[in-house]
Amino acid sequence: MKIVLFALAALAPLASAHFKLNYPAARGFVEDNLPQFPCGSFDTPSSNRTVWPVSDGSISLQMGHISANVEVLIGFGNNPGSAFNTVLRKTFTEQGLGAFCMTSFSIPEGVNITDGTNATIQVLTNGDPDGGLYNCADITFSTSAPVPDAGVCTNGTGVKVVAATSTQQPNETTGASTSTSASASATGSKSAAVSALNAGFGGLAMAGAAALAIVL
Length: 216
Ligand SMILES: *[C@@H]1O[C@H](CO)[C@@H](O)[C@H](O)[C@H]1NC(C)=O
Ligand SMILES: *[C@@H]1O[C@H](CO)[C@@H](O)[C@H](O)[C@H]1NC(C)=O
Ligand SMILES: *[C@@H]1O[C@H](CO)[C@@H](O)[C@H](O)[C@H]1NC(C)=O
Ligand SMILES: *[C@@H]1O[C@H](CO)[C@@H](O)[C@H](O)[C@H]1NC(C)=O
Ligand SMILES: *[C@@H]1O[C@H](CO)[C@@H](O)[C@H](O)[C@H]1NC(C)=O
Ligand SMILES: [Cu+2]
Fold this sequence. Notes:
Elements: H1 2-11, E1 19-23, E2 50-53, E3 55-63, E4 67-76, E5 86-95, E6 98-106, E7 118-128, E8 131-142, E9 160-162, H2 180-186, H3 191-198, H4 203-215
Parallel strand pairs: 2-8
Antiparallel strand pairs: 1-3, 3-6, 4-5, 4-7, 5-9, 7-8
The chain binds 2-acetamido-2-deoxy-beta-D-glucopyranose (5 copies) and copper (II) ion.
Keywords: Cell membrane, Glycoprotein, GPI-anchor, Lipoprotein, Membrane, Signal
Membrane topology: Lipid-anchor; GPI-anchor
Pfam families: BIM1-like_dom
């Protein structure tokens, strides 16, 4: 299995891209530091917060792995530190490379949000054999937040969401256990690998999926 993962990494240059939080704007982005809890090495809130809607918000990512688990948490206040205690979207599996925009966020019942409430969104993903990746965005809630510019919130061709095979947080699992191959074997079929092939991820990703299918 390890050998296959190394082969995948060698085949797919995008695999090193991990993931990127594009909207709301991340505190910062240093690719090599994404594994650093809680915010990919950016521990200080930005003074430049994105005004984000109280209902029907969206969060736009760039995905660099053919499959990754994703979870979205939030911490309220000016500086939640590492206390991202409220789940905005529980763990699911995303498949496909490129733009991925999650939509229809709303604040959980019982949380008291008013115009001007500050908070920080934490996006967790896996996708790497070593486990969790983190990126955070500082926001100010507003009932009159502007909609994101055209093109900010889109999905790439072949990007899709499926139920996660694990309910664990993405930083408690590795990409290897939740990859296309894992879900294919868990469901007792090759359907996930086949759909990856059909989704047109490109020759490199197809070669990787084919390698996994042969091992299985
Ligand atoms: C502040 O954030 C906005 C929206 O993300 C961005 O367009 C702008 O460049 C940022 N300004 C600074 C000084 O960081
Ligand atoms: C929210 O954060 C901004 C700085 O980013 C600050 O100016 C403002 O006072 C904060 N709002 C509250 C309610 O603390
Ligand atoms: C919600 O927060 C606002 C501002 O802090 C406060 O005035 C209001 O009483 C709170 N509402 C509830 C139901 O706690
Ligand atoms: C992107 O795809 C996901 C999963 O199907 C979907 O929930 C989301 O609404 C899509 N985003 C856009 C901008 O259509
Ligand atoms: C994973 O992230 C959650 C949410 O921020 C955090 O509570 C937990 O401690 C993290 N686990 C690890 C192993 O870092
Ligand atoms: Cu990665």
